[in-house]
């Protein structure tokens, strides 16, 4: 149950092979669907520095 075992994920990585223990479905993009575009984020307006009144 280590690197030599081709039935485990670690063994598949070591042997550079794929199969049921190491599927590739997570890396594939489904055909026909475009990635969703992110909406632009509006930045908050910069705050103006105000002068403090001197204590009398």
UniProtKB/TrEMBL annotation:
Segments of skewed composition (Low complexity): 25-44
Basic residues bias locations: 45-56
GO cellular component, one term: ribonucleoprotein complex
InterPro entries for the chain: Ribosomal_bTHX/bTHXc/bTHXm, Ribosomal_bTHXc/bTHXc_plant
Any single Pfam family the record assigns to this protein: RPS31
Keyword terms of this UniProt record: Ribonucleoprotein, Ribosomal protein
Residue ranges, annotated region (Disordered): 1-56
Taxonomic superkingdom: Bacteria
Coiled-coil ranges (or none): none
Family: Belongs to the bacterial ribosomal protein bTHX family.
Name of the protein in question: 30S ribosomal protein THX
Originating species: Arenimonas caeni
Lineage: Bacteria, Pseudomonadati, Pseudomonadota, Gammaproteobacteria, Lysobacterales
